[in-house]
Amino acid sequence: AQTVTQSQPEMSVQEAETVTLSCTYDTSENNYYLFWYKQPPSRQMILVIRQEAYKQQNATENRFSVNFQKAAKSFSLKISDSQLGDTAMYFCAFMKLHTGANSKLTFGKGITLSVRP
Amino acid sequence: EAGVTQFPSHSVIEKGQTVTLRCDPISGHDNLYWYRRVMGKEIKFLLHFVKESKQDESGMPNNRFLAERTGGTYSTLKVQPAELEDSGVYFCASSLQGFEAFFGQGTRLTVV
Protein backbone atom coordinates (compact mmCIF):
# COMPACT_ATOMS: atom_id res chain seq x y z
CA ALA A 1 0.00 0.00 0.00
CA GLN A 2 1.06 3.55 -0.64
CA THR A 3 1.38 6.27 1.99
CA VAL A 4 1.79 10.01 1.59
CA THR A 5 3.15 12.14 4.41
CA GLN A 6 2.85 15.88 4.83
CA SER A 7 4.47 16.59 8.14
CA GLN A 8 3.85 20.35 8.32
CA PRO A 9 0.23 21.13 9.28
CA GLU A 10 0.50 24.80 8.42
CA MET A 11 2.79 27.46 7.03
CA SER A 12 2.71 31.17 6.51
CA VAL A 13 4.47 33.30 3.90
CA GLN A 14 4.68 36.97 3.09
CA GLU A 15 3.14 38.07 -0.16
CA ALA A 16 5.65 38.06 -3.07
CA GLU A 17 8.00 35.69 -1.26
CA THR A 18 8.74 32.05 -2.03
CA VAL A 19 7.54 29.09 0.01
CA THR A 20 8.20 25.36 -0.22
CA LEU A 21 5.73 22.72 0.92
CA SER A 22 7.16 19.30 1.64
CA CYS A 23 5.78 15.85 0.89
CA THR A 24 7.23 12.38 1.15
CA TYR A 25 5.70 9.12 0.04
CA ASP A 26 6.29 5.44 0.27
CA THR A 27 5.60 2.91 -2.45
CA SER A 28 7.00 -0.20 -4.03
CA GLU A 29 5.65 0.84 -7.42
CA ASN A 30 8.00 2.07 -10.13
CA ASN A 31 5.45 3.78 -12.35
CA TYR A 32 3.21 6.37 -10.77
CA TYR A 33 2.04 9.96 -10.77
CA LEU A 34 2.36 12.57 -8.07
CA PHE A 35 0.09 15.57 -7.69
CA TRP A 36 -0.38 18.72 -5.72
CA TYR A 37 -3.98 19.80 -5.26
CA LYS A 38 -5.12 23.14 -3.86
CA GLN A 39 -8.33 23.64 -1.89
CA PRO A 40 -9.17 27.31 -1.33
CA PRO A 41 -11.60 28.29 1.42
CA SER A 42 -14.49 27.87 -1.06
CA ARG A 43 -13.66 24.13 -0.83
CA GLN A 44 -13.40 22.98 -4.45
CA MET A 45 -10.11 21.18 -4.97
CA ILE A 46 -8.19 21.97 -8.10
CA LEU A 47 -5.09 20.43 -9.60
CA VAL A 48 -1.98 22.58 -9.26
CA ILE A 49 0.69 20.42 -10.82
CA ARG A 50 1.41 16.84 -11.86
CA GLN A 51 4.65 14.85 -12.08
CA GLU A 52 5.15 11.57 -13.89
CA ALA A 53 7.61 9.36 -12.03
CA TYR A 54 9.34 8.27 -15.23
CA LYS A 55 10.25 11.86 -16.08
CA GLN A 56 13.46 13.18 -14.62
CA GLN A 57 12.63 16.78 -15.38
CA ASN A 58 10.74 18.58 -12.64
CA ALA A 59 7.27 19.82 -13.60
CA THR A 60 6.61 23.57 -13.72
CA GLU A 61 3.35 25.50 -14.04
CA ASN A 62 3.91 29.24 -14.00
CA ARG A 63 4.76 30.17 -10.39
CA PHE A 64 4.48 26.57 -9.21
CA SER A 65 7.29 24.06 -9.53
CA VAL A 66 8.20 20.78 -7.91
CA ASN A 67 11.38 19.21 -6.66
CA PHE A 68 10.94 15.52 -7.38
CA GLN A 69 13.53 13.23 -5.83
CA LYS A 70 12.52 9.70 -6.82
CA ALA A 71 15.22 7.87 -4.88
CA ALA A 72 14.41 9.82 -1.74
CA LYS A 73 10.65 9.56 -2.42
CA SER A 74 10.28 13.26 -1.93
CA PHE A 75 7.98 15.62 -3.82
CA SER A 76 8.02 19.23 -2.64
CA LEU A 77 6.08 22.15 -4.10
CA LYS A 78 7.65 25.56 -4.51
CA ILE A 79 5.43 28.59 -4.90
CA SER A 80 7.25 31.66 -6.17
CA ASP A 81 6.02 35.23 -5.86
CA SER A 82 3.25 34.17 -3.45
CA GLN A 83 -0.10 35.84 -3.93
CA LEU A 84 -3.02 36.31 -1.56
CA GLY A 85 -5.03 33.94 -3.74
CA ASP A 86 -2.57 31.16 -2.94
CA THR A 87 -4.03 30.97 0.56
CA ALA A 88 -5.50 27.46 0.68
CA MET A 89 -5.04 23.96 1.89
CA TYR A 90 -2.58 22.01 -0.26
CA PHE A 91 -2.71 18.26 -0.64
CA CYS A 92 0.00 16.02 -1.98
CA ALA A 93 -1.34 12.91 -3.71
CA PHE A 94 -0.09 9.68 -5.29
CA MET A 95 -1.60 7.56 -8.04
CA LYS A 96 -0.39 4.21 -9.35
CA LEU A 97 -0.05 4.04 -13.08
CA HIS A 98 -2.43 1.46 -14.44
CA THR A 99 -2.77 0.44 -18.01
CA GLY A 100 -6.31 1.18 -19.04
CA ALA A 101 -8.58 2.18 -16.18
CA ASN A 102 -7.83 5.19 -14.06
CA SER A 103 -6.77 4.65 -10.49
CA LYS A 104 -7.55 6.14 -7.12
CA LEU A 105 -5.58 8.89 -5.40
CA THR A 106 -3.81 8.46 -2.09
CA PHE A 107 -3.63 11.77 -0.23
CA GLY A 108 -1.53 13.27 2.52
CA LYS A 109 -3.17 15.12 5.42
CA GLY A 110 -2.71 18.46 3.75
CA ILE A 111 -1.04 21.70 4.77
CA THR A 112 -2.74 25.02 5.37
CA LEU A 113 -0.86 27.83 3.69
CA SER A 114 -1.58 31.42 4.62
CA VAL A 115 -0.22 34.28 2.52
CA ARG A 116 0.18 37.49 4.53
CA PRO A 117 -0.33 40.87 2.84
CA GLU B 1 -18.83 23.57 -19.16
CA ALA B 2 -20.31 22.70 -15.78
CA GLY B 3 -17.95 21.21 -13.22
CA VAL B 4 -18.59 18.42 -10.75
CA THR B 5 -21.62 19.29 -8.66
CA GLN B 6 -22.49 17.86 -5.28
CA PHE B 7 -25.72 18.12 -3.30
CA PRO B 8 -26.30 19.09 -0.58
CA SER B 9 -23.41 21.27 0.44
CA HIS B 10 -24.17 20.68 4.11
CA SER B 11 -26.24 18.10 5.94
CA VAL B 12 -26.87 17.73 9.65
CA ILE B 13 -28.67 14.56 10.70
CA GLU B 14 -29.24 12.62 13.86
CA LYS B 15 -27.56 9.33 14.58
CA GLY B 16 -29.61 6.52 13.13
CA GLN B 17 -31.10 8.55 10.31
CA THR B 18 -30.46 8.08 6.62
CA VAL B 19 -28.71 10.55 4.35
CA THR B 20 -28.22 10.46 0.60
CA LEU B 21 -25.48 12.46 -1.06
CA ARG B 22 -25.54 13.15 -4.76
CA CYS B 23 -22.80 13.82 -7.27
CA ASP B 24 -23.21 15.01 -10.84
CA PRO B 25 -19.93 14.47 -12.70
CA ILE B 26 -18.72 16.40 -15.69
CA SER B 27 -20.71 15.28 -18.71
CA GLY B 28 -18.98 12.47 -20.57
CA HIS B 29 -16.67 11.49 -17.72
CA ASP B 30 -16.82 7.73 -17.35
CA ASN B 31 -14.79 7.65 -14.14
CA LEU B 32 -16.42 8.77 -10.91
CA TYR B 33 -14.82 8.59 -7.48
CA TRP B 34 -16.03 9.13 -3.92
CA TYR B 35 -13.62 10.24 -1.20
CA ARG B 36 -14.10 11.23 2.43
CA ARG B 37 -12.14 13.44 4.78
CA VAL B 38 -12.69 13.08 8.47
CA MET B 39 -11.56 16.15 10.43
CA GLY B 40 -7.79 16.25 10.80
CA LYS B 41 -7.22 13.11 8.77
CA GLU B 42 -6.24 12.30 5.21
CA ILE B 43 -8.70 12.29 2.38
CA LYS B 44 -9.57 8.63 1.97
CA PHE B 45 -10.75 6.83 -1.13
CA LEU B 46 -14.16 5.19 -0.89
CA LEU B 47 -14.95 3.82 -4.32
CA HIS B 48 -14.57 4.18 -8.07
CA PHE B 49 -17.17 3.77 -10.81
CA VAL B 50 -16.44 3.26 -14.46
CA LYS B 51 -19.71 4.19 -16.09
CA GLU B 52 -22.33 2.34 -14.04
CA SER B 53 -20.01 -0.40 -12.78
CA LYS B 54 -18.11 -0.41 -9.51
CA GLN B 55 -14.46 -0.73 -10.48
CA ASP B 56 -13.06 -0.57 -6.96
CA GLU B 57 -15.02 -0.34 -3.72
CA SER B 58 -12.19 -1.31 -1.40
CA GLY B 59 -12.46 1.90 0.59
CA MET B 60 -16.10 1.58 1.62
CA PRO B 61 -16.07 1.47 5.44
CA ASN B 62 -18.93 -0.96 6.00
CA ASN B 63 -22.29 -2.09 4.68
CA ARG B 64 -24.04 1.01 5.98
CA PHE B 65 -22.69 2.76 2.91
CA LEU B 66 -24.32 2.13 -0.46
CA ALA B 67 -23.21 3.81 -3.67
CA GLU B 68 -25.00 3.73 -6.98
CA ARG B 69 -24.48 5.30 -10.35
CA THR B 70 -27.59 5.39 -12.45
CA GLY B 71 -27.02 4.84 -16.15
CA GLY B 72 -23.44 5.92 -15.82
CA THR B 73 -24.45 9.51 -15.09
CA TYR B 74 -24.98 10.90 -11.59
CA SER B 75 -24.08 8.96 -8.47
CA THR B 76 -25.58 8.72 -5.01
CA LEU B 77 -23.98 7.68 -1.75
CA LYS B 78 -26.41 6.60 0.93
CA VAL B 79 -25.51 6.18 4.57
CA GLN B 80 -28.03 4.13 6.50
CA PRO B 81 -28.14 4.28 9.47
CA ALA B 82 -25.70 7.12 10.06
CA GLU B 83 -23.26 6.94 12.98
CA LEU B 84 -21.28 9.71 14.66
CA GLU B 85 -18.02 8.57 13.02
CA ASP B 86 -19.52 9.10 9.57
CA SER B 87 -19.18 12.86 10.01
CA GLY B 88 -16.79 14.48 7.58
CA VAL B 89 -16.56 16.00 4.13
CA TYR B 90 -17.50 13.73 1.25
CA PHE B 91 -15.88 14.58 -2.05
CA CYS B 92 -16.81 13.39 -5.50
CA ALA B 93 -14.45 13.53 -8.46
CA SER B 94 -14.69 12.61 -12.10
CA SER B 95 -12.23 12.07 -14.90
CA LEU B 96 -12.31 11.24 -18.58
CA GLN B 97 -9.00 9.85 -19.69
CA GLY B 98 -5.58 10.80 -18.55
CA PHE B 99 -4.82 11.56 -14.98
CA GLU B 100 -6.60 14.69 -13.93
CA ALA B 101 -9.49 14.24 -11.56
CA PHE B 102 -11.94 17.13 -11.23
CA PHE B 103 -13.42 17.53 -7.79
CA GLY B 104 -16.72 18.85 -6.53
CA GLN B 105 -16.99 21.22 -3.59
CA GLY B 106 -17.85 18.42 -1.23
CA THR B 107 -20.73 17.70 1.11
CA ARG B 108 -20.11 18.40 4.78
CA LEU B 109 -21.97 15.75 6.76
CA THR B 110 -22.48 16.19 10.47
CA VAL B 111 -24.06 13.37 12.47
CA VAL B 112 -25.25 14.43 15.93
Protein model, in words:
The complex is a heterodimer of chains A (117) and B (112). Chain A is mainly beta and 117 residues long. Helix content of chain A is 0%, strand content 51%. In chain A, a hairpin with a 6-residue loop joins strand 5 (32-39) and strand 6 (46-52). The relative contact order of chain A is 0.34. Chain A contains no helices and twelve strands. The relative contact order of chain B is 0.33. In chain B, the strands form two sheets. In chain B, strands 2, 4, 5, 6, 9, 10 and 11 form a seven-stranded mixed β-sheet that branches. In chain B, strands 1-3-8-7 form a four-stranded antiparallel β-sheet, with no helix packed on it. The termini of chain B are far apart. The chains are: A mainly beta (117), B mainly beta (112). At the A-B interface, strand 6 and strand 11 of A face strand 4, strand 5 and strand 9 of B.
List SSEs of chain A in N-to-C order: EEEEEEEEEEEE
Radius of gyration of chain B: 13 Å
Computed over alpha carbons, the radius of gyration of chain A is: 14 Å
Helix proportion range of chain B: under 10%
Q: Largest interface: which pair? A: A-B, 21 and 26 residues
Low-confidence stretches of chain A: none
Number of continuous helical runs of chain B = 0
Instruction: Give the ordered list of helices and strands of chain B.
Output: EEEEEEEEEEE
Termini separation of chain A comes to 41 Å
Strand content of chain A: over 45%
What is the 3D shape of chain A? globular
